[in-house]
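Exercise 3.2. Students should predict the tertiary structure of the chain below and write it as structure tokens, then compare their answer with the key that follows.

Predict this chain's 3D structure.
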Amino acid sequence: MRLMAAPGKASELFYEGSGGYVPPSFASVEEGLAVIDRGGPENLTTNTLREDLKWFTIQQRTLEAMSARWLGELDRREQQAPDDDFHSCTRWLSETLKLTPNAAYAHVRTARMLEQLPWTAAAFRRGQISSQHVAVIRRAMEQVPKTCLDPSDVEPALVFAARQMDTFNLEQHWQQIRYQADQEAALEAEEERRRQRWLSLRQISTGNYRIEGVLDAEGGATLKTAIRSLLGPRPASDDERTPAQRRADAIVELARRRLDAGDLPERGGEKPHLLLTADLSTLRLAPGSRLAQLDWGPLVTGETARRLADDASITPVLVDDKGGILHVGRSSRSVPGRLRKALNLRDRHCVSPGCTTPPELCVPHHRLHWADGGRTVLPNLELRCDVHHGRLHPENHRFRQSRAP
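Answer key:
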């Protein structure tokens, strides 16, 4: 490295004078960093850039280790004044450094634990392991008392491993150590992780849904396998969706398949289904028509309603001008089963150029929508995958052009 800057003496870190607080005397460190920054990376060789980045990382880790040591000392002092809530280390970190309470508490826990982990602290100060490695080792050492393992053997083994591997592999390495030494303890730890599973699905103000959660190892791997099977080996050449959007669509496809299978438990005397309520004028994209509604909740446009109605069970309901129900007709499938089989045999895959999505992943599309008078007959139907079917809707512009005087 081109420049090594040494910090000021520890005795000069701070002092209280008549002028109040004086910041630590780290002028040489700040000056050295400023010199490096002014030099910039533009004129350096590739090898020098790599060496500098390595040096930066080591110094950053060393500074983080020192910060944890300082935080441990502050925490010790403030624990001596337990009645003064303002002097809680967690609260001070949260309010002063704008950390979340959880992040602030994690810093304090790490600082406290490092004082009991000499091997970890030394490797951290030397920049040999990262703060993420320290977090893995800290969690592991907190679990060691629940096993038959000797802490004095586990810590150096984990530190040695941390110097060779990333945090994911380090976590797995710890799990292997625990299981090989104490299967009962590993089983209990696995059960604890399973109890931590949760899922939240809620509608947000925009009408979209937010999904958040944590799955246990078995559940997560199961879902991942199912999603990957629907994603296929690679997206179509004209599939402009991001990987995240493709995964989101795959989860919806999983749910749609289970609904279409018709083997889910009944609710309210009916098989579970997606309910779309729309006026005929909405399906015809008439000016001034109302938004359609999904499951008595989210509002969707007529274009979305037309796409969903391409292949659905239709129940006609006659209402008066006040919304009162006058008559409920018999439900019928927009594309009957026998006709769908014939359509699958004829098209064999999505008919969009270059798309080979199989029939079971496609939906029947009316070339002239039935809401516009199109007939549900084979010549008026074609198979489209979700991606290409969505591109045929919204069709508002085309619909109005075709009906322009």
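Discussion points: Residues 276-402 form one domain. Residues 1-18, 395-405 have pLDDT under 50 and may be disordered.
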